[in-house]
Amino acid sequence: METFSPEAPHSSAASTNGSPAVSSDSPGTATSSSSNAFSATIDGRPSQQHPAPPPSVPAACLACRGKHLKCDGNTPCSRCTSSATECIYVASRRGYKGPRRNAAQNPNKRHASSSPPYSGPTVESCPMMLGHTPVSIPAPSLSAFNPAIVLPEQSPVSYAPTPALNHAGLYRNSFASPLDPNTMAPPNTMALTTSSAIPHVQPPVTTLAERCFDAFYHYFHAAHPFVLPKEYFLRLLKEGNTPGLNVVMAAIRYIGSLFLDAGPAKATYLEEAIRQCYLPTTTKDGFLIQALLLIIIGLDGSCQQEKARELLADCERFAIEIDLNKRQFASLHGHGNPVVEESWRRTWWDLFVCDGMIAGVHRITNFLLFDIQNDVGLPCEEQQYLTGRIPPPAYMEDFDDQLFSGEDREFSSFTYRIAAIRNLGRMMRMPQIMYPGDDTISRIEALLTNWRLHLPESKRDDLNKNCKLDEMMFQAHFITHACTIMLHQPLSQLDSSPVQAVNSCAPHRPVPSGDNFNAHTRHTITAACEISKMVTQAVPIIQHTHFFTCVVTLSSIVHLSKWALYFIEDEEDLRQQIRLNIGALSKLSKVWKAANTAWGQVKGVAQEIYREKKAHQISPAFWVGFTQEQMISSIQADEGIMSEFNSMLTQVTQAP
């Protein structure tokens, strides 16, 4: 049984060894009851009838000690008596070696090694006295504080007398047991170094559902910021007056599980989220739209595009049925809470953006919401939303009329993201381009160029005013770059036949080759390089929207088409672009299955291009018209690019 040996704290009321209290009225003198409280010694025999010795004190009082003068040890001492100074002694155990033999001969004389006399209760009345049987007290159970914590049974904790000090100032127990050489404490005392007798309170273990919730807000929310901010969401959930939040919570857990090693729970959370959305008791409201939109994004990034399109059709129909596209929806269903009203506006516009991106990257749907009339207010800046400082909303007519009204106004990053996806919708509504000089190309290029030219200075890159990544502008820029590739690639002279196997995001579009690069080829290559540069942003790439996967894949198709050409002049630049893209896809593949599929296709195409080029290089006719320097440069370029793929493949294989 372990024993507890605490050291009594020093105080002015009692010394550490049980010496009598000092009266506040007469400093340095003991109370009258302390001198003759007992007439028996420890063994119970009567003591000699002589005056009780005064309390043992140090060799010098405080006044003499401060002046470094010899003190006679009397109370008061002669020096303090002559100088009318208050004489105070402080109890000390330093150098204690037991009572002096002549202590009884001069009871008024205090020696440096003498011990203060004990004037407390008897052994029988004080269980903490030396030699008394320790009292066993059961250790407190953590279950009394937290019923969820179950601890194994423990032995009761024993409390033993305070140990004495040796000359080195270290504890020694009363039974002369040796000190532990590691802890310098008695082996049977419950010192601070002994943890077996003191139950350690562990912090509460978070459940998988809680970790999924936190992962959603850490990794995902900034990319699609329409769900209420975390603090506001938890506050409404705690109030319990908003049952629709339970449906959103089920979808949040599914999205969060994608970023964790959740195992089979991912499928379970997905099934539960879809089930709750289609329960007969589920209200058709804005929270249902939010839950469905989250599930759609997760399914699309997990290579379940067909199921995602089914839910998207339902989500769009429900949104129109409840008038989510109307201005008054936010105020009618916001219950006077500006943050909730802002959440409803963002829900409509994020559904609008996601509908456009799904249509643009997969080229199967036709961006249905682009043709739906809406007058929903525009979202505010992200920091305003997260902190609850919601300004009065602007509207799309304000954005469209700013050039002609002469108003120099900066809109939110979310608004420029909406404007970018609107340009994609306009491009999709243009008639099919038949030849390179078609006027349709000029009109669409004017839309894309005007979007860039009229960006405020603070929105021209992907950083906000605090030099942190602005995810909304990040998406707005890559949407515009993707539109440029989609517009110009079919008219470029980059043969797309070598990369026709890269179709995880969109079906292959045949592009004929040409001898010289035309303007469309330059536009295409420039946009692809800009997308590759976006990979270099100082933020974990998995925190971007999963739609960035297909944009990077689109850029990779351009780079691989260029590499498939016979001769490459800017080999080093091309190698770096390809390296950035395959690195981005490998990172995104840790969360999104679509990125893993795209990575496998890009790698396979690269290997096929490399093998085909090596086969052609064996023939002397292949090098007709090339100088020796050009021939060596081309071979080195091919070897260098292929080595990049192999090194990235090795890194992905060795990753945990």
UniProtKB/TrEMBL annotation:
Pfam family, one: Fungal_trans
Region listing for Disordered, in residue ranges: 1-57, 97-123
Keyword field: Metal-binding, Nucleus
Low complexity: compositionally biased ranges: 23-41
Keyword presence, Metal-binding: yes
Skewed-composition ranges (Polar residues): 12-22, 103-117
Entries under InterPro entries matching the protein: XnlR_reg_dom (IPR007219), Zn2-C6_fun-type_DNA-bd_sf (IPR036864), Zn2Cys6_DnaBD (IPR001138)
Domain Zn(2)-C6 fungal-type: 60-89
Protein name: Zn(2)-C6 fungal-type domain-containing protein
